[in-house]
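Subgroup meeting minutes
Present: P.N., E.W., G.H.
Scribe: E.W.

1. P.N. recapped why we're keeping a running log of single-chain structure predictions: easier to compare across weeks, and new members can see raw inputs and outputs side by side.
2. G.H. added today's entry (142 aa).
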Amino acid sequence: MVIGLLACQKEYFPPGLYGYQVLRLVDGGSGKVWTVQSLEINGESQSMDTCINQYELHATVSKTAVDLYQLNSCNPVDTVYYGAMTATSAGNSGSNKNLFTDSLLFTGGRVNYVIVKYITSQTFDFERVGSGKRYSYHCVSE
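Output recorded in log:
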């Protein structure tokens, strides 16, 4: 019966990652570009055929922070600065010392946080809330 319960649990990101590891997956260690392959707003899929929904996320590394920008390919190019990124962790409690919890927090930009659903070196799925809407992103990187 325990096996059946474990099979029903949904894993949002690979378990056992530390916050710094999640940051490195996002920024690739020296900067990374993610292409948004699909976008849902309030559960409705958005067409990726028009430039207004063709986004890239640029993670840049400086001496003090990892910054995240969202750019689209429209003319003129529209940029949203998410902010300087930090990863949430469980702190020093029990056996989960400093393990990544679920969020990336931002300071100094237009986004407060995103909830990471899944992340690897090539896939980054997350959700954010803004202007009363829930945005769900599926991003890939080569």
